[in-house]
Design goal:
Largest sheet: 3 strands, antiparallel
Protein name: STAB2 protein
Helix content: under 10%
Number of helices: 0
Subcellular location: Membrane
Strand content: 35-45%
Distance between the termini: 16 Å
Keywords: Disulfide bond, Glycoprotein, Membrane
Number of strands: 5
Structural class: mainly beta
Radius of gyration: 21 Å
Order of helices and strands: EEEEE
GO molecular function: low-density lipoprotein particle binding; low-density lipoprotein particle receptor activity
Shape: elongated
Length: about 90
C-alpha cells in the first residue's frame, strides 16, 4: 500500500481580547483552543475606556491560545481530492 495522503500538522496561535489583568483570570480561549498562559495571562497589551469625549488607555493582560489543526494534503506525485496518482 503506497501512502498517497500526507497531512500537514499546523499550529494555530491566537490571543484573547485585552482586559484589566484582575479580570483576566477567568478568560477562556475559544472552543477548540488550549490556553498556554497561566494566571492573569501576559501583561503585553493596552485596553481603552471611553469616557464622554475622552478615550483613556490602560495596561492590560491577555491569554495566548493554540490549536493543532491537520490540513489534508497529498504526498508528492499525487493530487486532487482523492490523492490520485499519474
Amino acid at each position: 500500500q503506497v501512502k498517497k495522503q500526507c497531512d500537514q500538522k499546523l499550529l494555530i496561535r491566537m490571543k484573547t481580547k485585552c482586559v484589566p489583568c484582575s479580570l483576566n483570570l477567568d478568560t477562556q480561549c475559544p472552543a477548540g483552543y488550549t490556553k498556554i498562559t497561566n494566571g492573569t495571562g501576559t501583561p503585553d497589551c493596552r485596553y481603552y475606556l471611553e469616557i464622554k469625549t475622552y478615550t483613556l488607555s490602560f495596561p492590560g493582560c491577555r491569554h495566548h491560545c493554540e490549536k493543532e489543526f491537520e490540513q489534508p494534503e497529498c504526498c508528492q506525485g499525487y493530487w486532487g481530492p482523492d490523492c490520485m496518482g499519474k
